[in-house]
TrEMBL record:
<comment type="similarity">
    <text>Belongs to the enoyl-CoA hydratase/isomerase family.</text>
</comment>
<dbReference type="Pfam" id="PF00378">
    <property type="entry name" value="ECH_1"/>
</dbReference>
<dbReference type="InterPro" id="IPR029045">
    <property type="entry name" value="ClpP/crotonase-like_dom_sf"/>
</dbReference>
<dbReference type="InterPro" id="IPR014748">
    <property type="entry name" value="Enoyl-CoA_hydra_C"/>
</dbReference>
<protein>
    <submittedName>
        <fullName>Enoyl-CoA hydratase-related protein</fullName>
    </submittedName>
</protein>
<dbReference type="InterPro" id="IPR001753">
    <property type="entry name" value="Enoyl-CoA_hydra/iso"/>
</dbReference>
Length: 267
């Protein structure tokens, strides 16, 4: 399997790119594997997703060796099949209530940047490097890269990265907002797991509402967005999660959001 998916009993989904010997390059099998993983994460009990890649590099982008075996109409059809699966996986991950954490190391290029950018929290090893790579081989972006980059780093800097294909180190990626923060390479796995585990103990419905509000706010006028915030807040406060959170705060204890969905009205 080019993509592994393991969901713990308490709802932490671990999605792993398993083509480490090929830099976790994305071909048709890997794209379909990511879609299968995303579909599995739609389970109601999934509370957080941790995305990692085996080997030296998180993801070097598309599998050019696979693509080079085809040409003309056959290549076009193949790439449509790859992007159909990959893009549907990204759509599903974006719709989840469960937050996503990505841990990236080594080379992160092309579609690898899209996967890293799609996460809510992206941790980068301090020796990681990032390059768009697309136009360097005569390709244009996929995996949401042309959508994520302008929103994360601004349109001017996004075009710089996309057109020049310059390689940037992890420290610069953090400084411009491409990743959430950098971590010492030998601590990346531990810190990513700690972050995902902390998020998966959180209020999943409220996290999902927050994810959607942030995404909608990028293209919404203030007035309508304030209305969305008000409605979401009222629903969250009245939910089992909201009642548990307030009860825990007033009772000076840690909240147990995992059991909140089972709470009945009036508890």
């Amino acid at each position: 399997m080019s993509v592994g998916i393991d969901i713990s009993d308490d709802g932490l989904a671990r999605v792993t790119l398993r083509r480490g010997d090929a830099g976790n390059a994305i071909g048709l099998a890997t794209a379909r594997g990511l879609l299968d993983a995303a579909l599995a994460c739609q389970r109601a009990d999934v509370r957080a997703v941790l995305l990692t890649g085996e080997g030296r590099s998180f993801c070097v982008g598309g599998d050019l060796r696979e693509f080079a075996r085809l040409d003309g109409a056959a290549l076009e059809e193949h790439l449509i099949a790859v992007t159909d699966s990959l893009h549907e996986a990204l759509r599903i991950f974006a719709r989840l209530d469960a937050p996503m954490v990505a841990a990236v190391q080594g080379a992160v290029a092309g579609a690898g940047i899209g996967l890293a950018a799609a996460a809510d929290v992206t941790l980068a090893a301090d020796d990681a490097s990032f390059t768009a790579a697309y136009t360097g081989i005569g390709y244009s972006p996929d995996a949401g890269v042309s959508w994520f980059l302008p929103r994360l780093v601004g349109p001017k800097r996004a075009l710089d990265l996309l057109l020049t294909n310059r390689r940037i180190p992890a420290a610069e990626a953090e400084a411009i907002g491409l990743v959430s923060r950098t971590v010492a390479a030998d601590l990346l796995t531990e810190e990513a797991a700690r972050t995902a585990e902390a998020l998966h103990r959180g209020p999943t419905a409220a996290v999902g509402a927050t994810r959607r509000l942030v995404a909608a706010g990028l293209t919404s006028d203030l007035g309508p967005h304030l209305d969305r915030e008000a409605g979401a807040l009222a629903a969250a406060a009245a939910s089992a999660e909201g009642r548990e959170g307030v009860a825990a705060f007033l009772g000076k204890r840690a909240p147990d959001f995992a059991r909140a969905p089972s709470l009945t009205s009036g508890t």
